[in-house]
Design goal:
The complex is a heterodimer of chains A (497) and B (325).
Chain A: E1 8-17, E2 20-30, E3 35-39, H1 46-53, E4 61-66, E5 69-71, H2 76-81, E6 84-87, H3 99-103, E7 110-111, E8 114-115, H4 117-130, H5 146-159, E9 164-168, H6 176-191, E10 195-199, H7 203-209, E11 212-217, E12 220-226, H8 232-239, E13 257-266, E14 269-279, E15 283-288, H9 294-302, E16 309-314, E17 317-318, H10 324-330, E18 332-335, H11 339-343, H12 350-355, H13 368-382, H14 398-410, E19 416-420, H15 428-443, E20 447-451, H16 455-461, E21 464-469, E22 472-478, H17 484-491
Parallel strand pairs in A: 3-10, 3-11, 6-9, 9-10, 15-20, 15-21, 18-19, 19-20
Antiparallel strand pairs in A: 1-2, 1-4, 4-5, 7-8, 11-12, 13-14, 13-16, 16-17, 21-22
Helix pairs in contact in A: 4-5, 5-6
Chain B: H1 2-21, E1 23-24, E2 29-30, H2 35-59, H3 68-85, H4 90-114, H5 119-138, E3 142-144, H6 154-157, E4 159-161, E5 167-169, H7 170-188, H8 190-200, H9 202-207, H10 212-238, E6 240-242, H11 250-260, H12 272-292, H13 299-324
Antiparallel strand pairs in B: 1-2, 3-6, 4-5
Helix pairs in contact in B: 1-12, 2-7, 2-10, 2-11, 2-12, 3-4, 3-5, 3-10, 3-11, 4-5, 4-10, 7-8, 8-10, 11-12
Classes of the chains: A alpha/beta (497), B mainly alpha (325).
């Protein structure tokens, strides 16, 4: 009986976080020697599901069965002890350890209080040979390439005798050759009866490896396709496949070009060259998968990071000096991705945050009257809900914090407003207010450029969308041709007719 | 503000206790309250207070300067060298010394901002480096002023008489001037606001267009400049400096005064008034030990224990209020 039971069975798993239902009653099954690919948009619940499987999160409802037996995972160590190993997307190895120490981290071979270095080196060599990684176990992890580190992580899972391997975007930092090597190892593990949950945005890999493809959308199952029938189109429709209620949105009439980007290259994708223009009164979205270089592009435009090459013109004038101060002075401002780290000085008051970028325009001494006016005006115009200008900004809700970020930059009279994930961590109500405000600003002639991982946001906000893939603009979609399918196709590297 | 009230209260309690303990039966008076003692105490407060404000400048940026004592030594040795050995006029010699100290701060700032070295490392090496260089430069000889700067010495030893036995010491006036200017800089100027913003969250300040690098360098320059000013006052006070010991441990008194006065080591927090009160407390404690104990052997131990107790009580109070919220 037990031998017929699937290796891993996920039954009706639900998980909520404050404000989000991340997973709603998700089911799937993994058999021995099978590769199941999990696909879905950013935020569809893949990461949460993976963390539930690895014992990081506990599900609110539902059941996990290992070989037919219900199990409750008490933590990552417990999951590993039961044979479920997670290979992280961001490699989670300690660079300062030797290869042997990394393989045995947390399960060191010992004799009393002493480490059995020699035995661990032997063991590491043997287990790494199984994944085709032939390195000296005494060398430091830091000396390995990303691909070798990935194999080392798999080797560590094998050392722990994992029966279920969860791979999260395993090829995101690998070269073509390293990725090919990883696929071979995956095939070999499959032959040996290991079950693999494979999470990837790269649909080409998925159709190459998967025995079955399971789709997730908004935290629910969206269907399942056998591996050999998994075409690009079918997978994309599994990921998006939802008709959006198109809300009423005002149409803008673009004016002259106010932002001209020529030949900009960023450190993330040194070989990819980006050219585009944004007109006044236009709202342009930048879409693309995680790691496609969206945020890096915005940071380079704002001068937060140095661009490797290229020219940026704001209002017809090329930016001469580098840096956020120069960009802001020229009229290009950025509401950054990480509000708490980059957007606001959390420990300072609402008033001080609002005036921070413009105070120096009012002379060397602090202009208290200006601060008071700006604060009162911003609170009224943007509808910032705060006890007063003196309240510490860190105690506001995400939506109100984002309004403060908007307010401080609107005070600078920008020509181009750039937003990175404009509504991340913002509740639905404040989100609608922010959208309305952005439309209003565009109507008044501001050029708005934004990056968003949420397709719905891109569709409802943008007049025009640039889709990035590996740092390049893979395509441009005017409003008429905008749909989740066209964006996802361009983002995953397909041509759109 | 609450923190400042706390430290002011502590100051009063210790002053009263010291007064009470300093009763001298033979002269039927409180030694602590004698004009001579108070005058000395206020003079030391003036000189060490300048150093605490120096330290506070870098601490509010989230940095630290461990080289303050050695910069004091540099100023203390270079001022006599210029005045006595080279006959440079006092009104040129002192600005030259201050310029040299500011250059040391500039060097710190450039290493920290340009090369990305840690302030702790840069200034710890500075602590060793400058004292070592000064010892070699002076051949460990005592550098005396030898009567070449009698007018300038008023800055350190001068008094504005109030009563027959008590006058306001000039260094206290220097501190008052430095404190007022610093306070205006911190609370009224845009650069001051930017300094505190970058101390709280350097990344966000940079993303708001604040010139974080330049301001950080400025903070280190001002810190070393003020340390140099303190060094000049010290050498003008005692008339000579010995490179191996002049200014030893002063960076710790300076930092302790600033931190006691409510300047948070994590940066972005602090008031000048608090720093001045912190410096007062440090000097008052030493005065208490000198008056009450027969020897000053326990000095370090008592100072350490009081600061530790203060920090523990502060943290305890904060946790108590956080839990209630």
């Amino acid at each position: 009986m037990a031998s017929d039971a699937p290796l891993l069975e996920v039954a009706g798993i639900s998980k909520a976080f404050p404000g989000v239902q991340a997973l709603s009653s998700v089911d799937f099954v993994l058999h021995r020697g099978e590769v199941v690919a999990l696909i879905g948009e950013n935020g569809a619940g893949k990461s949460t599901l993976m963390k539930v499987l690895a014992g990081v999160h506990r599900p609110d409802a539902g059941l996990l069965r290992l070989l037919g037996q219900a199990v409750e995972l008490r933590g990552p160590a417990d999951a590993l002890a039961r044979g479920i190993a997670l290979i992280h997307q961001e490699l989670s190895l300690c660079d300062n350890l030797t290869v042997a120490a990394a393989v045995y981290l947390g399960a060191e071979l010992r004799k009393g209080p002493f480490l059995r270095e020699r035995a661990m080196q032997h063991g590491a060599r043997a287990v790494l040979a199984q994944v085709g990684l032939h390195v000296d176990p005494r060398q430091l992890v830091a000396t390995l390439s990303p691909g070798q580190k990935q194999l080392l992580e798999i080797g560590r899972a094998l050392r722990a005798e994992a029966r279920v391997l969860i791979m999260d975007e395993p090829t995101s930092s690998l070269t073509q050759v390293e990725a090919e090597r990883l696929f071979e190892v995956t095939d070999e593990l499959r032959r040996r009866g290991v079950g693999i949950v494979y999470i990837s945005h790269r649909l080409g890999e998925v159709s190459r490896l998967a025995d079955r493809v399971v789709g997730l959308r908004d935290g629910r199952n969206s269907g399942e396709i056998p591996g050999r029938e998994a075409t690009h189109e079918r997978m994309v429709s599994l990921m998006v496949g939802r008709t959006l209620s198109q809300e009423q949105r005002p149409s803008h009439s673009p004016g002259e070009v106010v932002l001209r980007v020529r030949g900009v290259r960023t450190a993330a994708f040194p070989e990819a060259c980006v050219d585009f223009e944004v007109r006044s009164g236009e709202v342009v979205g930048i879409a693309g998968l995680l790691g496609s270089g969206r945020s890096e592009l915005l940071r380079a435009l704002f001068g937060a990071d140095r661009a490797l090459a290229g020219q940026i013109e704001v209002g017809g004038v090329p930016l001469q000096r580098h840096g956020p101060a120069a960009a802001a002075a020229a009229g290009l401002v950025l509401a950054p991705e990480d509000r708490k780290l980059q957007g606001l000085v959390l420990g300072m008051s609402v008033r001080d945050n609002l005036s921070l970028p413009t105070l120096h325009r009012r002379g060397r001494f602090i202009d208290r009257a200006y601060e008071r006016d700006l604060c009162a005006r911003s609170i009224a115009e943007l509808g910032i809900r705060t006890a007063g200008g003196g309240q510490v900004v860190g105690s506001l809700s995400g939506g109100n914090q984002q309004k403060v970020v908007l307010g401080k930059w609107l005070a600078a009279n920008p020509k181009v407003l750039v937003l990175d994930e404009p509504t991340r961590g913002v509740d639905v109500g404040a989100r609608a207010e922010i959208y309305a405000r952005l439309h209003e600003l565009a109507g008044a002639g501001l050029a708005v450029l934004f990056v968003s991982s949420e397709l719905e946001e891109v569709l409802s906000l943008a007049d025009r969308v640039l889709v990035l893939n590996h740092g390049r603009i893979a395509g441009e979609l005017p409003r008429a041709r905008l749909s989740e399918e066209t964006i996802m196709m361009l983002a995953t590297g397909m041509e759109v007719a | 503000m609450k923190k400042i009230l706390g430290i002011a209260a502590l100051l009063v309690v210790i002053a009263l206790t010291t007064t009470w303990l300093s009763w001298d039966a033979s002269s039927q008076s409180y030694t602590f309250l004698s004009g001579y003692n108070l005058q000395n105490l206020l003079q030391r407060i003036g000189m060490f207070g300048v150093l605490s404000i120096a330290a506070a400048f870098v601490i509010v940026t989230g940095g630290i300067d461990l080289s303050i004592g050695s910069v004091v030594c540099v100023a203390g040795c270079m001022l006599p060298w210029l005045l006595r050995d080279h006959g440079v006029p006092p009104l040129i010699a002192m600005p030259l010394v201050l310029l040299l100290c500011a250059a040391i701060g500039l060097w710190h700032g450039l290493l920290i901002v340009g090369l990305g070295l840690q302030p702790f490392v840069v200034t710890l090496c500075g602590l060793l480096l400058y004292r070592g260089v000064m010892r070699a430069f002076t051949g460990d000889q005592t550098m005396g002023l030898g009567g070449t700067a009698d007018e300038l010495r008023w800055l350190a030893t001068g008094r504005i008489p109030i009563t027959e036995s008590f006058g306001l010491p000039a260094p206290l006036l220097v501190l008052a001037l430095v404190a007022v200017v610093t306070s205006i800089f911190w609370t009224r100027t845009v650069a001051g606001r930017h300094l505190f913003a970058l101390g709280r969250n350097e990344e966000a300040a940079r993303f708001a267009g604040v010139a974080t690098g330049r301001l950080t360098v400025l903070a280190y320059v001002l810190c070393s400049l003020l340390a140099g000013l303190g060094g000049c006052l010290f050498v003008l006070d005692v008339n000579s400096a010995q490179a191996s010991s002049f200014g030893n441990f002063y960076e710790l008194y300076a930092i302790a005064g600033a931190v006691l006065g409510g300047v948070a080591l994590r940066g972005g927090e602090g008031m000048v008034l608090g720093v001045v009160l912190g410096a007062c407390l440090m000097q008052l404690l030493q005065n208490t030990i000198n008056l009450v104990a027969d020897s000053n052997q326990l000095e370090f131990a008592v100072v350490g224990a009081v600061i530790l107790a203060g920090a523990a009580v502060d943290e305890g109070v904060r946790r108590f209020f956080r839990r209630r919220r």
